Amino acid sequence: MSPRRRPPVAARTSPRRRRWRLPVALLALGLLGAFLWPSLTLLFSPVRPVVAALDQDVVYVEPGAGAVDVEGVRREIDERPLVMVVLRADSPLAEDPGETCTGVSDRIEGVLVAVVAGAEFEYGCENDIPLNVDEFGWDYAQWSTYGQATGFLDGDVVAQAAQLAARYDAEVVRGRLDHEPRTLAAPVSRYVLAASLVVLVVGGVLFVYKGLDRVVQGVARRRAERGRWRARRDELDAALGEVALIMLDLAPGGSRARAAKLAKLSEDYLLALADWTQARPGTELDGLDTRVAALRRRALALEDA
């Protein structure tokens, strides 16, 4: 007797793997979502164009905000981790400059953000900068002093940038802030988000294609099944017609037993005909097929009797 073959390892382990697939997939999606959350929320944030510009620059000037010497601002800021957001006075982003400022600093960490509206400083904030003192006290003193210093600059954005750079350098010299030069490069999360969106779009297209393909195949399958059902019903119709013709040819005379069989045949025929008439697409026809075949045999037997 040949030895029993052991089932393949994959066959024995696949159910366990399937049980782990969903938790692992959910965990991976959760981690990816947590990593990409700031970038995902940015897609629906009003500061999206501001962040997109400041990812690769030190200054954002909103269209209609007036003439700004952008190159002058860039020269003053240089490689310092400073950015300036220049808005129109009537801009929706200027209605709540604090929210606009934190919307930028939350997505571009390690920089000091100054929001200017109508050429006047409105709000400043920062996130995750290398401070050596209490952040709350430093933040209040930093931006209050900066606001007072820029109040006499008559809307000169370049001078405001120079003042911001001077205050930054002074804090570094005093040791209250460590200098970390800024490199203009989009965060990794932006690339991951872009790649994820591409994957999601491709996956969505494939999902829709597969879904439509299944729908089309399902419709075609149902049409084919309905066609086969109708063809079989037509065959039963022809068989019932043949039984009716045989019954019409049967002579009414003969023994009492023969007459009883004929009466019973007629009764069963009418019941089968009623069931055939009431049958709707999808109705099981096997039982009726068996009954009609039996009726035909009984009719032929009476014809030969």
Topology readout:
Layout: H1 9-42, H2 48-54, E1 59-61, H3 70-77, E2 82-87, H4 97-105, E3 112-117, E4 120-126, H5 135-150, H6 157-173, H7 188-249, H8 256-278, H9 286-304
Parallel strand pairs: 1-2, 2-3
Antiparallel strand pairs: 3-4
Helix pairs in contact: 1-7, 3-6, 5-6, 7-8, 7-9, 8-9
Structural account:
It is a single chain. The protein is α/β, with parallel strands linked by helices and 305 residues long. The protein folds into two domains: 25-185, Diaminopimelate Epimerase, Chain A, domain 1 (Roll), CATH 3.10.310; 191-304, no CATH class. Helix content is 64%, strand content 7%. The chain has nine helices and four strands. The protein has helices at 9-42, 48-54, 70-77, 97-105, 135-150, 157-173, 188-249, 256-278, 286-304; strands spanning 59-61, 82-87, 112-117, 120-126. It starts with 8 loop residues before the first helix and ends with a helix. Keywords: Membrane, Transmembrane, Transmembrane helix. The chain crosses the membrane at residues 191-212.
